[in-house]
Amino acid sequence: MIEDALAWAGDVLGAPVVAHERLDGGLTSTMLALRDSSGDESVLRLMTEEPWRTHGVELTTREHVAQLALAGTDVPAPITLGLDAEGAAAGVAAHLMSRLPGAPLGTVDDAALQAMADLLATIHAVRPAAPFRTFQSWAWEAKWVVPGWTQHPDSWRRAFDLLAAPAPAYEPTFLHRDFGHRNLLWTGDTITGVVDWVETSTGPAWLDAAHAASNLAVGFGNDLAAAFVECWAVTSGTDPQAHWLVMDAVGYLPPPGKSPMFGDPAQLARLDSWLDRLVRSLS
């Protein structure tokens, strides 16, 4: 599969691929950094992981269209170079794109939080020619089961009750939909890339902010997550919206019969603490 995909990429690039390496991350996909015979670098996404592989046509096509929409904007997104959504070359959906400079941050400080908020505002200012799909909640009702590892079962029950109520009205906004520190590349103190556009959607701006906060909570703890929520509230000029913050946190619960997406108990504990903090803020 890999060799066939590399041959396809070489054809698209007009120069054979002479070196490749697997990039870190890639929950949904195999992500390969490529170098062709001209010395240029690119990135190849192969939708190898289920259940995303089953939806590879939709996901890679959406990322391709999103990158087309972002071309020429102030958002530092990759440039789409080639799409094999049907997987004719490698047997799985494939998307070839430019490689951006920078690397993810190992730690996040207040300046990074402000840079994240500023970038999110830039993303939300994009007006694509045609709207993307309405966002999908990742906190579907089948997940509304109090997890066995929680120290705050009542908070999860209150969260489920909140989500059972009608969602608040919102202004439809262009969303990254998987925005967070893990999908940002930095050069020094500047964000030089935002990647992973397969979930691009239309929805409430606070849902993007909520996902960034959840990721910060799981990765670093409540204080940074809460600081980002405050930062986004100031940057966007809007008050925090509990429904979307809670929805995103609940979305990290596994589907029935599945294991949690985090294998590290410390990450689960931080998610548990974040959800509890969000729910307590409603009192």
UniProtKB/TrEMBL annotation:
Q: Which domain of life is it from?
A: Bacteria
Tell me if Transferase is a UniProt keyword of this record: yes
Q: Which GO terms describe its molecular function?
A: transferase activity
Keyword field contains Metal-binding: no
Question: Which InterPro entries does its entry note?
Answer: AGP_Transferase, Aminoglycoside_PTrfase, Kinase-like_dom_sf
Task: Alphabetically list the UniProt keywords.
Answer: Transferase
Classification via Pfam families = APH
Task: Give all residue intervals belonging to the Aminoglycoside phosphotransferase domain.
Answer: 22-232
Q: Which residues form a coiled coil?
A: none
Instruction: Please give the name of this protein.
Output: Aminoglycoside phosphotransferase family protein
Q: What is the species listed in this Swiss-Prot or TrEMBL entry?
A: Nocardioides alpinus
**Lineage of origin:** Bacteria, Bacillati, Actinomycetota, Actinomycetes, Propionibacteriales
